Automatic annotation (TrEMBL):
The keyword Metal-binding applies. It comes from the Bacteria. Keywords: 3Fe-4S, Electron transport, Iron, Iron-sulfur, Metal-binding, Transport. Its cofactor is [3Fe-4S] cluster. The lineage of its organism: Bacteria, Bacillati, Actinomycetota, Actinomycetes, Kitasatosporales. InterPro entries: 3Fe4S_ferredoxin (IPR001080), Fe-S_cluster_ET (IPR051269). The keyword Iron applies. This is Ferredoxin. Ferredoxins are iron-sulfur proteins that transfer electrons in a wide variety of metabolic reactions.
């Protein structure tokens, strides 16, 4: 699963850090740091974090479970 946060959109509300603290963290008052290659076991927390972002700054490839299938079809 791959995460991308548009740091130009991010306003530092920290909802993601609250909902998925193993993946997102605030550095200071407004700077977000995150793991762009989130572990599979964080899928449910990540789905909540993506949905909770007030400015829709987070996207997650493979969150719906299609990442592996997509990569397999590309290999053909």
């Amino acid at each position: 699963m791959r995460l991308v946060v548009d740091l130009n959109k991010c306003q530092g509300y920290a909802q993601c850090a609250f909902l998925a603290p193993d993946v997102f963290a605030m550095h200071g008052d407004e700077a977000l740091i995150y793991n762009p290659h989130a572990p599979e076991e964080q899928r449910e927390r990540l789905a909540r974090a993506v949905a909770a972002c007030p400015v829709q700054a987070i996207t997650a490839d493979g969150l719906d479970g299609t990442e592996g299938a997509e990569e397999a079809s590309d290999a053909r």
